[in-house]
Amino acid sequence: MENKLKLYGFNNLTKTLSFNIYDVCYAKSEREQKDYIAYIDEQYNSERLTNILCEVTRMIGATVLNISKQDYDPQGASVTLLISDKHLQPDGIDSSCNCGNLDIYSKKQSVAAHLDKSHVTVHTYPEYHPDNSIATFRVDIDVSTCGQVSPLQTLDYLISSFDSDIITIDYRVRGFTRDIKGKKCFIDHKITSIQDYIDPEKLKNYDAIDVNVYQSNIFHTQMMIKEIDLQNYLFNTDVYELPPKQRLAISDSLKKEMIEIFSGMNIYE
Known about the structure:
This protein is of the alpha+beta class. It has five helices and eleven strands.
């Protein structure tokens, strides 16, 4: 076990985790694509996303001070939590904060959440291709913490909370704090790769690459699912209803879409 760093004053380090996933689906007709978007919008509405972020907050040992959430028309949702890395007494909490109690907001269309020194946010972006029957669903989650709280331990939970075909993870430690002798400390824990914080059983299902800038405490990992079980990617269609050639064509189309998203460029135009 690592020796705990003894600090002079408060730990001023800011640790930010950006977690981005894509779920890819084949929806044959325009009607199916719109139905898929509606399905995703319902599955990942602001209420469910709020529950996910509250669990993330619990896992990192923080306390919710305020919650803000919104479902959008025609699609998408956003949630923001303001959090504290420790419990605060009621007289120390701003009167505008709802402390995670959303009952009083049940008749409102939007709610907001705030933390003491940190925040957690999520945004969703469903969309579909106009020509090739591919629909995608993107989720962006940002966890920013100060002090000893680290968001890296939430990665397994986040990966399991969504159908994660492509995953992009960024982790950065910013600022500095001081030890009891006044020496600057620019990171307070050892890390060589974000992959070290992901369950090996989950990790083996993905192709993964790292792009790290160690001297700047910047860590980047990209992951793409290795195997495609076509049935998991068909919306309102049974795989056995399709002839073999069509199955291969759909699988090829899905794989190309994933490769382009993973690569961040148009390859197959």
